[in-house]
Write a structure and sequence with these properties.
Number of strands of chain B: 0
Number of domains of chain A: 1
CATH architecture of one domain in chain B: Orthogonal Bundle
Distance between the termini of chain B: 27 Å
Oligomer: heterodimer
Shape of chain B: globular
Order of helices and strands of chain B: HHHH
Number of helices of chain A: 10
CATH topology of one domain in chain B: Cytochrome Bc1 Complex, Chain D, domain 2
Chain lengths: ~290, ~110
């Protein structure tokens, strides 16, 4: 209990510090939120750090970092372990709801080849909408119960939608709306803030240490880290959605995971996708 | 807060010389350093005698020549004081390990 208290007050101090900085800079030289400049610097950091990795290759996560793993993976891709999920997703996607409508009715272009445009900022709602969220909203609008964000059904739907978008570069837009800029900034702050008993931020592992081993796992670079989602993980013996991966990374590092599709996770996904603009969708992916 | 087993172990060894006592601390320290639920130092550091080490931190070896006991305690307690950007968790500050456990881990580090 005591440790937890200390840890919470440390976080409070940290967040307080961040807010104080924001307030101070608002008075002094307004620190403009500049996603385009961020994305450029972000991509440059990774291409400078890994000059031997081809730009499009960053979407291959750990495999872009490690030659031995890459070989094993290329052999595995002959019989991809996500095939089953992909087939299931294709079938579910085409099956009408009780009311006769289908998923295709909820999305632009019948839902095909559009993965690269998610998440987007919905100016009516004033919030970020991810693909997983849009799929559940589609189900509910048609009288169906939502799927769990961390289970196979959701993964197979996003697997199919990603598959029809393979090769299309991420094209995330940030409209000229202060709320959209703020959502981006919140996601960025979440990504760089240290949390949990072990004091890790997402960046500690995926910006500072990509390519390094953490026990036996090779850390993926944050650049292109969502392009291959959803993923089949041998360690899970199954598929994982983006929601599942975020919750897992938080809880494995002894931080308290958020609710899937909470505002923070939506903003985080918005930030991570935006800074990977230009990199091709490669999902569904397979990981060790 | 001394673990009963550790206590019994330490008490038994108290019959021997101080050297022996340091060794018992080192053995316990090694357990803590390798245990995934406690120090889990192997996640990031290669350490003699440990399996499946990570590579985020440097190999832990020949530390005796490099740091004294207090410096090692400081590193394990809160390495962010030396390096604010470090990936290494602040084991003491965030109460991941107790003071006694850190003591034992440092006994172990001094044998590397």
């Amino acid at each position: 209990m005591h440790a937890r208290h200390i840890f919470l007050s440390a976080i409070a101090a940290l967040v307080g510090g961040v807010l104080a900085c924001v307030a101070a800079s608002a008075i002094a030289a307004p620190d403009k939120i500049d996603p385009a400049a961020d994305a450029k610097a972000f991509q440059k950091y990774f291409t400078d750090k890994f000059p031997q990795v081809k730009f499009e290759d960053f979407v291959n996560g750990p495999y872009s970092m490690n030659e031995d793993m890459r070989k094993q993976w290329e052999e595995k891709e002959q019989f991809p372990p996500y095939e089953f999920s992909l087939e299931a997703g294709k079938e579910v996607f085409a099956t009408p709801f009780g009311n006769g409508k289908t998923y295709a009715d909820c999305f632009p272009n019948g839902g095909l080849g559009i993965r690269q445009n998610y998440p987007y900022f919905d100016e009516k709602e004033g919030k970020v909408v991810t693909l997983e969220l849009a799929l559940n909203r589609c189900r509910e609008a048609n009288g169906e119960a939502p799927y769990s964000y961390v289970d196979d059904e959701m993964a197979s739907l996003t697997a199919y939608m990603a598959f029809t978008s393979r090769g299309k570069p991420f094209d995330i837009k940030i409209p000229n709306d202060p709320r959209a800029l703020q959502a981006y900034e919140n996601g960025k702050r979440y990504f760089y803030t240290r949390r949990g008993q072990l004091n890790f931020s997402c960046a500690t592992c995926h910006v500072q240490s990509p390519g390094e081993r953490i026990r036996a796992e090779v850390l993926a670079p944050a650049l292109g880290i969502l392009n291959a989602m959803p993923i089949y993980r041998s360690e899970w013996s199954g598929m994982g959605t983006i929601s599942r991966r975020l919750v897992t990374c938080n809880s494995q590092t002894r931080a308290v995971p958020l609710e899937p599709q909470s505002d923070e996770y939506r903003d985080l996904e918005y930030f991570l996708s935006y800074v990977s603009n230009g990199l091709p969708i490669s999902g569904p992916g397979a990981r060790p | 807060m001394i673990h009963p087993a550790t206590f019994a172990f330490a008490a038994a060894l108290a019959l021997f010389a101080g050297v022996a006592q340091a060794q018992s601390g080192a053995a316990e320290g090694q357990n803590i350093a390798f245990d995934r639920g406690r120090g889990n130092c192997l996640t990031c550091h290669q350490i003699r005698g440990g399996d499946l080490p990570g590579t985020i931190g440097p190999e832990l070896k020949e530390l005796k020549g490099k740091y004294d006991r207090n410096e090692l305690i400081a590193i394990v307690t809160d390495e962010t004081r030396r390096n604010p950007l470090t990936a290494m968790p602040p084991f003491g500050r965030n109460r991941i390990l107790t003071e006694q456990e850190i003591d034992a881990v440092v006994d172990f580090l001094l044998t590397l």
